[in-house]
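Thread: "does anyone have the structure for this chain?"

Original post by V.I.:
We have the sequence but no experimental structure in hand. Need at least a predicted one for the grant figures.
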Amino acid sequence: MPGTVQSIERAAAVLRLLAAAPDGLGVADLGNALGLAKTTVHGIVRTLHQVGFVEQDHSGAHYHLSDAFGRLGESYLDPNELRSRAINWADSLASRSGEVVRVGRLVEGKVEVVHHVFRPDDSDQDLDVGTTLPPHATALGKAVLAYDTSARPRSLEAYTTRTITDPVQLSEELATVRSRGWATEFEEHTVELASIAAPIRGLGGLVVGAVGLAGRIERICDSRLRHRGDLVSMVRATADAIARDLREDP
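Reply from O.Q.:
Generated one for you, tokens below.
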């Protein structure tokens, strides 16, 4: 039987101590209570602070549990943070691909668009920021739904004749997304449109959203109606770049 992970045990101990200290504790206090060196404790609380579980007081001398720790069932990443880290990369993707680009995250079973870049031409387009998309019928949605099965819609509404409405088929589709690392959609949400998306991973590898592009089938797919490999590579590289930025210190 495998043993326990010491670093997780220590982090859990720090969280328990902070939960019992409403006024917060300093690194020395935590170290004394756990019999650990200050450098070790500092590394633990710094990581817990980075993932949003603890906060520092105004003096910076004491740590206490953050409000986010009490809301573990919610997304830990502020949508403004996701958008700010994604803007430059999403804009670049739209410029290189010539297509609409969206960044989204799961909220109450829907995909909320937190950033939208217009297709770089002179056509009339509506801003989608703040709107929601069905996760089972869009590449953007599948890219996040594949890693959060608890958010799977109870009812799979049909938007076109190609929309996946069978739970077994959707499970198979999401397994494919996980195995290859990217998602596609072909006339499942809107007739004559196709899309490609890839998950964005935050701290610890947790999927916090997705970035994708969408456009007319003849531009997104090749002559055999397969999603173009060059666009898939662009989308995946963009997701990786956003993820790197999210993992960096503010």
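V.I.: this helps a lot. Residues 79-97 form the longest helix (19 residues).
O.Q.: and The domain at 6-71 is CATH 1.10.10.10 (Arc Repressor Mutant, subunit A).
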